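haha ok so turns out i had the wrong file open the whole time. this is the CORRECT one, sorry everyone. sequence first:
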Amino acid sequence: MEEMRAIQEKWQKKWGDARVFEPDSGSGKKFYLTAAFPYPNSPQHIGHARTYTTTDVYARYKRMKGFNVLFPMAFHVTGTPILGMAKRLASRDAEIIEIFERVYGIPREVSTSLNDPVRLVSHFSREIEQGMREMGFSIDWRRKFYTYDPAFNSYIQWQFRKLEEKGYITKGTHPVPWCPSCNNAVGSHDTRGDVDPELGEYVCIKFAYMEGYLITGTFRPETVYGVTNVWVNPAVEYKKAKIDGEVYYISREAAEKFAMQGREVEVIGEVSGSEMKGECVNPVTGAKIPLLPASFVDPKNGTGVVMSVPAHAPYDYLALRDLGSKILPIQVLAIEGFGKFPAKEIVEKMGVRDQNDPRAEEATKEIYRKEAHTGKMVAGEHANEPVIEAKEKIKEELLKAKKALAMYEIVNGPVYCRCGELCIVKSVSDQWFIDYGNPEWKKLAKECFSQMKIIPEKLLPEYLYTIDWLKEKACTRASGLGTKFPFDETKMIEALSDSTVYMAFYTIAHLLDKNEKLTEEQLDYVFLGKGKGKGGGKEKGDAKRGAGSGEANARKGKGVMGGDAELNERLEKMREEFLYWYPLDSSHSAGDLVHNHLTFFIFNHVAVFPREKWPKQIATNGFVLMEGSKMSKSMGNILPLRTAVAEYGADVVRMCVVAGADLDRDSDFNQAMADGVASRLKHIFSLKDAECGEPAPIDEWLLSRLHRRLRNAESQFEQLRLRDIAQEFLYSTFNDFRWYEKRGGKGAALREYLENWCLVMGPFIPHFAEELWEALGKKKFVKDAMFVSLAEFPKADEKKITSAERAENVVVQTVEDVKHILEIIRKKPARINLFVAPQWKRKLYSLAYKHKRVDAAMKEAMADAELKREAKDAAKVLQALTKKVNELSPEMLAQEEELGALGGAAEFLSREFGCECVVMMEGEASDEKAKKASAAMPMRPAVLIE
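then structure:
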């Protein structure tokens, strides 16, 4: 590790001294990308490394493609988590101090000193920055800022004024996720586990009962036509409550929820669930339906009373079946592939035992998904309408007729605030919102998405779904770090609302003092091109011309906005920087931000900036597991990033976190993988002194492998198929190098491969690649450069992609076949005979690949005179080939090529197995060997061992 550490420090210093990653605007074609900025309330662990390494790999690749690349970084300190952490440390919270010491290795005397929010931010931001530097991330640190810097605050206030001008900021009473202890609206940054509370609207349908109503909460009001009974929990003490003048029977928790959501609630009595019997009346059908007991009814969920729709709800069907009830289901809707009662069918098909069987949940999800997206109503006034449309209509009709109430619930609960309190839904008056429900704004957001590249592409429907369901989002809170809300400075802008267009601020951050505040007029000029020069200059709205005539005025000291010449010169420079770097070319984060931050990012960009400045791409990735398990403080399996770098080396960590899984899957960091990467790199480095001897036949094979991979590499990088690149250029290449050595390669092709390999793998393992690049000395096959980081990405030479690969594959497969036979016969061979299939079998091979069926292939074969002569054996050969039709290839070696490949390898095969190896055509086999030889197939010679 000392050697690895020295290599890392060496190249990080060289990059820094040469200012390799500090791009200036205006020089060549640009590429601007960002990764979600970190929240510095603890050290980063290895899971954080995946997003930043993915971004860095992409940034480094783009540099090598000739782009002027900007990859900046800042620190997100907005909100209350830092305040809460500092408070816990100040109170000497034993749990957090123990975690800091045990998991992160922070001594108690250090952690207890971090009891001030600013000191806490300073400590952990330094820790995170150092970890990123040690990982070799190609970040321009000149542009670093904190979201509580006055300069950034003025920018965010400007953003909110732009939103308010468009009518996207509203004030009123709305339901919001709420922490009763902190007395604040909460978002993902405020909750344990960074869970974003999702609000769902229950339709609480009123079933007439005694002198009032039972109200049942449901997300599926369209199924009210199929209610056969109502479930109550006999173990629950229900409240008889007067709400807005009407009497309801609901759980205690439901009464509290209604009160928190702005309704007048007066509890006037209690009644045990065991006493609630008899019948109630369906408000839509008028049918009298019984009350039945059910222990599965959760008083905390909805209203604590549940309507039963056994035709479409597996749990309801199972509960009635478990009771031995004779109640018959009532069909409400139809779905493809099911009869009248889908719940009954899927339960019986899956063999679900009872309502406690875990498969009941799986059955429910399956049915609900199909009904929601493909169902069609068969009952009620909306019969024949799609469920997705009828559901909303029925909900509005029930609410308008006062046959139902609306109640909001956190549907992905329970969600806990970082303070430990259970989050609830509260209707908050005098609350400020960003109105993501605005239909015109949604239309613009969708227009932006239609022009964007989404990686992985399959997530595009998730973004569009999120755009559709987003409504008003609370954007202020009572306390916390960050930016004061410009329309009420007693409030702070909440964390997810100030982190949507910070990417534009990076373009000017290095030109500002952190305490410097720009005015709204100045920011309008910098980011929108609005404003006039002091000397009566023209409007500065032409994005292509940059600052326009104001540039000349600034140089003369007349001013862009008025003010001194130095400030105006800087404003001109800021305008130039923004126009050069924007739009953002690629935004990177973990996939859990799709339903909030990343969609807000689009909404806010289309609201604030003109179309030509809308972002172009979003890429998201999965998480990182540790030895197959999700990392958690309680399990103690969190590996701090800097600890990982110290133990394994930056390049090994980088390789493991991005190469272990496809982009949208979770990667697993484990000891075996880290050791495997390290050992392969060590072996590859040992090849650096390979001499370029006389070319050997195997050289053509290795070069073909190289250039075929190079042909695919660019598209793999562009799609961020990093696992594929790693598989090809680390694991498969390592195996190829070993095979090349084994086959007697003399180094000519190896040298060419290594020079190109440094360039392809440079984005993944930059320190190692730079060290090998330097060790190779003057380049013989690629264009030389001072740094791999600035070298030109290699291109494939199509002329070097030949049939040599297919020929060598025959040799490799033959070795495996011989080994398999020797394992079976368990004797030392005296002679190995290899028989090559004749031309007529190759014709049959092509027909088998073409038709995939024996009869069709045989029909065409009999029209060929040569094959007709072999009719007796042709059917057998075709049967054998079509059994393995998925293994057939459109690229087949000619008879002479296969014979030449095996003949050329005969000496190698003789050495490999310690005996004579003879290669001949199938037809040359003597009588006693002819039967065995007849088993030869194209590119799969028959093997006879003597």
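The two ends are 51 Å apart (CA to CA).
again sry for the mixup
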